[in-house]
Design a protein that fits this description.
The structure holds two protein chains of two kinds. By secondary structure, chain A is an all-alpha fold. Chain A has one domain (about 1-240): Ferritin (Up-down Bundle), CATH 1.20.1260.10. Chain A is built from ten helices and no strands. In chain A, helix 6 packs across helix 7 (about 150-160). The longest helix of chain A has 29 residues, at about 30-60. By secondary structure, chain B is α+β, with helices and mostly antiparallel strands. Chain B has helices spanning about 30-40, 65-70; strands spanning about 5-15, 20-25, 50-55. In chain B, strands 2-1-3 form a three-stranded antiparallel β-sheet, with helices on one face. Classes of the chains: A mainly alpha, B alpha+beta. At the A-B interface, helix 2 and helix 6 of A face helix 1 of B.
Chain lengths: ~250, ~90
Amino acid sequence: MAEFEALLEIADDHLILGHRISEWCGHAPMLEEDLALPNMGLDLIGTARTLYDHAGKLEGKGRSEDDLAYLRDEREYRNCLLVERPNEDFAHTMLRQFYFAAFMRPYWLAALDSTDETVRGVAGKAEKEMAYHIRHAGEWVIRMGDGTDESAARMRDAVEALHIYVDELFDSSDAAQEAEAAGVLPLRDALRTTWDRTVAEVFAEALLAQPEAAYAQRGGRQGIHNETLGHLLAEMQVVHRAHPGARW
Amino acid sequence: MTATTPLWEVFIRPRNGLAHKHVGSLHAADEVMALQSARDVYTRRGEGNSIWVVPSAAITASDPDQTAENFEPTADKIYRHPTFYEIPDDVGHM
């Protein structure tokens, strides 16, 4: 069931980041961003839904997208650690989004050649969404990095806080490696050059330096998460767990 | 807020061949952010395929005090409306 597990990892990345972004809804610093952020969150959740649905069918145990999203505990979630990082401030939020999209865009472009038809379908839609996320979040990274003393300091703090979570994006779990060997999913490691270039271009304009990571924080793919994920899941799953089978 | 994020007017073209139409306004720091915000605020339901943004300050508007002298003189020139001839059925939609 390598493909099921590998798809679950990507679906979890998208759902968790989508939920994080949705936490800004009603709290963004300006109305324009209050609409832009949920737009991006919905892109991510849409991708997660298709992947969960497909993964559930491959698993063949009758689990629906809702079962997979709402009825798994923290240790069963396989998302990378970057996407579960708290929103903190606008700088953290935009940098996290930029890092993730800079990875997923080339990932989906490569996945256009997947042997799996559903993956190809998701890739065709998601690569455009990720291109926009890179642009939107990237422009904010530039404006905050090359902005006021306050915004530049916040953006530098975000870089400092998030760069240890970057390397995990390029790791392939055992399940992912199997799916990669079967031509279902792209090689994660091969995307590093593109990611580095995308980030370097924006950082040059943003007057930011990409620090060398002294160490890389990993564990998400094994279900070992930061405690913040538990809080996120509690909020995300509470209605479904309190009212099993409820419908709108 | 208006000092750092001035007002922009947003125009959307719904389809190829149609004109850009004013849909509203928004605040943004510069033209790049204004275009992105316009995309996020005004095209969420497939409203169009092209966006213009224009600084509101760049628009010169007619004076409301001159409304009467500007627009009332056309009211009695109904001959300017092409409603006085019949279009043959064969012509179809014009």
